[in-house]
Give the backbone structure.
Amino acid sequence: MRYVIMADGKGSRWNDFMGHKKHDISISGETLLERTVRLVHKFDNSAEVIITSHDKSVDIPGAIRYEPKNNVLEIDRFTAELIGDNMCFLYGDVLYSEDAIKTVIAHRGQAPLLFFGSEKSICAVLIGSGGLFRSLYLDVRTRFIDGEINECKGWQVYHLYAGLPLTGRGIGESFVLLDSFTRDFNTPEDYLNYVSEN
């Protein structure tokens, strides 16, 4: 299966904290990207791993780097030209537990779309039907450009799919909660809170 790790964000909330990008955060001597690539290969020995980034320094063994053709809106992290059937989008700024990656992989083939994360963040999207995901992605993107909605992220794609309001953070069907170890680092405070807890 193809796994696309999204690491081409602007990093505006992180603001080059500690002199590096979010996905270069090192936990136990391993960057977030290195850890994610390693865990995907550990639990899926036939995995094809792609890291989307314009940063030429992103060179992780076990993955290839791909420069997205379009990265204007936040939703564009879901690299449109890579959307297909039987694939998974993972986030480059997430510290995944082994159980989280195993959970995502174990759900392959169970639904047209499954979203994974917590009440506050989406950490993975497992796509059975690329056509369905692409149509939702384009719908959300168009609604944002037309001024119908104020945010244009994975949450809006999930809410559209689940039949929920396109505002806020709500969880319904087709959402799998991951363990509390798995977390994203959007801001320096997220990282500092993790360090203080561990």
Notes: The CA atoms of residues 185 and 192 lie 9 Å apart. The radius of gyration is 16 Å. The chain is about 30% helix and 20% strand. The chain has a mean pLDDT of 88.
